[in-house]
Amino acid sequence: MADLAVGFAAHLRLRGLVVPPDTVVGYAKALDALGLADRDGVYWAGRSTLVRRPEDTPAYDAAFADFWDGQAAFIHRSHSSLERRIVAVDLPQEEGDGEGEGEADEVLRWSAVEVLRHKDLALLTPEERDEADRLIDALRLAGPRRRSRRRRRSHRGALDLRRTVATALRAGGEPVHLAHQAPGERRRRVVLLLDVSGSMADYARGLLRFAHAAVSARDAVEVFTLGTRLTRLTPMLATHDADAALAAATAAVPDYEGGTRLGDTIGEFTERYGVRGMARGAVVVILSDGWDRGDPAVLGEHVARLSRVAHRLVWVNPLKASPGYAPLAGGMAAALPWVDEFVEGHAVASLESLARLLSNQVTDRRAG
Question: N or C: which end of the chain has fewer CB within 10 A?
């Protein structure tokens, strides 16, 4: 129950709720007492322990439906989302003790959903893939923010002379109240460049669903695919139906699971879109294993140019989690010096970490 309570709390935090650890402990104890059979009991236990403000109720209801409805479907397929295994440990008999058998039970618990979150996307069964799709669809990308030139009212910060004088004039010329202002914030654009070549076939579906979740969660997100040509997918993914968006996206990509010209397509994006404004000041995420049939020097040159335009460059490589992996392939080795973050992308948990990484790209202190 603790695993489920922690997972649901994380789901709530992605929707903006403040969930302190002590409330999660209380919710886990409530679930342990109630069980999972009574859905209304599970709902009200969380509502009374995890929701601190009335205005958070709609977000809680939406998160509850996403998490527990999908969890119930998973329980139905796997017979139990939380299996308890009792391991009996026989203690040695003590001399002169007729009651020779002692009893000590070690309770081992595991969550099937937790196992699925860390399982490689390339190794999923069809049933597990459906569950992984649900978990990816539930991701919410808050995204980075940037400092804007527009000022906003604040309780502290620089003196707002205009408002201070206006207030003073209404008070007979005495500056009774000092008004302050601080720099405003705006969303920083996120650009996803997704490799859909044959070497990425096992991961392209999950990464496309991640891209759809990003587009659905916020504006200022652009999605392109990299293969033998560059394809813009943002309009196809701008729908709330994930399955329909995925079908439209794959149909729109003529080179899906085909060859790859990674360096050329990144260069085309930089030339056609990046330097003309789309990548300027943006967080650019390349989701690729780094295999390229072209000249590694060309890939390195184009990635270097893109990194000079973008605010930050993140490379997501599904192979990074493989034991003994080292970025020694020609294309990956040439691009890596220009990458700000090099992270995994092989499982649902790594995509959740990517969403947190992008959301933690807090406001840049520069005005640009």
Answer: C
